[in-house]
Amino acid sequence: MKSVLLCGVGGQGTVLASRIIAQAAMDGGRMARTAETIGMAQRGGAVVSHVRIGETPEEKVPSPLIPDGQADVLIGFEPGEAARNLGYLKPSGIAIVNRRAIVPVTASLGQSDYDGQAVLDWLQANSRCFVIDGDQAAEACGSAKVLNVVLTGALAETGALGLSYDQIEQAMIRRVKPKFVKMNQKALALGAEMVRR
Q1: What separation in angstroms does the CA of 94 have from each of 13, 105, 133, 159?
Q2: Helix/strand/coil (H, E, C) string of 74-108?
């Protein structure tokens, strides 16, 4: 079984990214299950999506929830959320983390400190971690809303889930509105390129 945990904050597209990954697996004849935990706030609250995929068409996935230490991949849309969920990652797993920190309300009110670079440094010291500038890539595509597809492209390039780039691209095409397909194809390609560097 392969597992990926996606984490971010509301409004970053975490859930759609998880649906694209699961769709790619199911289109390939594999069983996939997903589950989400969505924070209290529509935007700014923590969002965690679990995706578990059978490695063969015969393998069943009994539960969508990833036990601690069992994720093959952790995709962090935001450094602090990646650090908060690092316990899900298995020792041999990889983390893909977006560089931009989103300052929580408590820090912006001066009630706590949040240094995104310090968190990234800690993640790189404690995991096999790819830090990518997903927001910059999304802006280059014309919309910050494609950050989720940039990160999905980075995942596709790793091959960590046994899903090809083409499988993920086809699933993305099925999941986004036709008028946004070209922009999302560019985002997927830029995400993959960032991991190849």
Answers
A1: 20, 29, 17, 11
A2: EEECCHHHHHHCHHHEEEEEEEEEECCCCCCHHHH
Query: What is the pTM (predicted TM-score) of this model?
Result: 0.92
User: Above 90 in pLDDT, residue 37?
Assistant: no
Share of the chain above pLDDT 90, in %: 83
pLDDT, residue 155, reads 97
* 20-24, 110-114, 123-127: the lowest-pLDDT one: 110-114
Task: Please name the residue that has the structure tokens 């960590």.
Answer: 160
SS3 per residue for the chain: CEEEEEEEECCCCHHHHHHHHHHHHHHCCCCEEEEEEECCCCCCCEEEEEEEECCCCCCCCCCCCCCCCCEEEEEECCHHHHHHCHHHEEEEEEEEEECCCCCCHHHHCCCCCCCHHHHHHHHHHHCEEEEECHHHHHHHHCCHHHHHHHHHHHHHHHCCCCCCHHHHHHHHHHHCCHHHHHHHHHHHHHHHHHHHC
Residue pair 7/82 in contact by the 8 Å Cβ criterion: yes
